[in-house]
Design a protein that fits this description.
There is one protein chain. The chain is an alpha+beta fold and 263 residues long. The protein folds into two domains: 143 residues, Regulatory protein AraC (Jelly Rolls), CATH 2.60.120.280; 103 residues, Arc Repressor Mutant, subunit A. Helices cover 38% and strands 21% of the residues. The strands form two sheets. The chain has a six-stranded antiparallel beta sheet with strand order 1-8-3-6-9-10, with helices on one face. Strands 2-7-4-5-11 form a five-stranded antiparallel beta sheet, covered by helices on one side. The longest helix is centred in the C-terminal third of the chain and has 18 residues. The radius of gyration is 19 Å and the shape is globular.
C-alpha cells in the first residue's frame, strides 16, 4: 500500500522560517486528503502535474510556477502518477507573502534555492549557512509576480455540481441553458449566479477550466492531440488557438521555454 504524502513529513514540528521537502508520487497515493498546516506551503512541480483545491478554487501547478497556500487554510491535492514535487513550508510572519492562495511565478534561482534547502534536514542551525540561504530565498519569493492558473468554483452547491461534472468530463459541451435545466434554474439566474460567485461568465469559466486541465495533462506527458480530444475540441488547431490566446504561446512553445518536456 502506498502511503499518503501527508504522513511522511510534518513541517509544523519546527519553527524554522523555511523548510523544504521533495516527494515522488510513484511512491505515494495520488490523492492527498484535505489537511492544514500552521506554516504556509508553496507547491512546485519538478515533473508531472498536480492540482490543488483550496478556498473554493482549483489550482494547477504549471512549470516555473508554484501554488502558494497560506498557513491555516485547509487544502487537498491530486497528483499525476509521474509527479515529482517540492514543497516549501514557510513559518507565519517569516516573509511578506500573499494572505490568500495564489499561483506565483518562480525564477530559476528560487527553484534552485528550494532544491538546496530540500537537501537539508528540518533541524538546520538557525544562524548557519543554510539559514542564510533560507532568508534570501524568502526575500526573493516575496517579489515574485502572481499568475492566473486557477478555477474559482464557489461553495454554492449548484456551481460545485457543475464544476464536479465538468472536471470529471471536460469534453462536455452542454450549453448554459442545458446546465440551467440540470440544476433546476433559469438560464438567466444561473448566468447571474456564476458571475456573482466566480467573477466569470459561463464561457470564460469553462475556458479557464479547459486551460487548467490542459496544463495538468500536458505536463503529465499527454500529447496535444489527446488533450484537445479530451477537452472536446473539434480540431487540434482550435485547441492550440485557445491555448495561445490565453498564455501567449502554443503548447509546444510554452513547455519548451520551461524545459519541462517536449511535445
Amino acid at each position: 500500500m502506498l502511503r499518503s504524502a501527508v504522513s511522511v513529513f510534518d513541517p509544523d514540528l519546527t519553527d524554522l522560517p523555511a523548510v523544504a521537502h521533495k516527494l515522488d508520487f510513484s511512491e505515494h497515493q495520488a490523492e492527498v486528503p484535505s489537511h492544514v498546516h500552521r506554516k504556509g506551503q508553496l507547491i512546485l512541480a519538478l515533473h508531472g502535474a498536480v492540482t490543488c483545491t483550496a478556498n473554493n478554487e482549483i489550482w494547477i501547478v504549471p512549470p516555473n510556477c508554484g501554488v502558494w497556500i497560506p498557513g491555516g487554510v485547509p487544502h487537498s491535492a491530486r497528483a499525476t502518477a509521474n509527479a515529482r514535487l517540492t514543497y516549501l513550508f514557510v513559518e507565519p510572519e517569516a516573509a511578506k507573502l500573499p494572505e490568500t492562495s495564489c499561483t506565483l511565478s518562480i525564477s530559476a534561482m528560487i527553484r534552485e534555492m528550494i532544491e538546496r534547502l530540500a537537501r537539508e534536514r528540518a533541524d538546520y542551525r538557525a544562524e548557519g549557512h543554510v539559514a542564510r540561504i533560507a532568508r534570501v530565498l524568502l526575500d526573493e519569493l516575496a517579489q515574485m509576480p502572481r499568475e492566473q492558473f486557477n478555477l474559482p468554483i464557489s461553495s454554492n452547491p449548484k456551481i460545485r455540481a457543475i464544476a464536479d461534472a465538468l472536471t470529471a468530463d471536460p469534453s462536455d459541451r452542454s450549453t448554459l441553458n442545458d446546465w440551467a435545466k440540470r440544476v433546476a434554474m433559469s438560464e438567466r439566474s444561473l448566468a447571474r449566479l456564476l458571475i456573482r460567485e466566480t467573477g466569470l461568465t459561463f464561457g470564460r469559466w469553462r475556458q479557464q477550466l479547459h486551460l487548467v486541465v490542459a496544463l495538468r495533462d500536458l505536463a503529465s506527458g499527454d500529447a496535444v492531440q489527446n488533450v484537445a480530444a479530451g477537452l472536446g475540441y473539434e480540431s487540434v488547431n482550435a485547441f492550440i488557438t485557445m491555448f495561445k490566446k490565453a498564455l501567449g504561446s502554443t503548447p509546444a512553445q510554452y513547455f519548451a521555454k520551461r524545459d519541462v518536456r517536449s511535445l
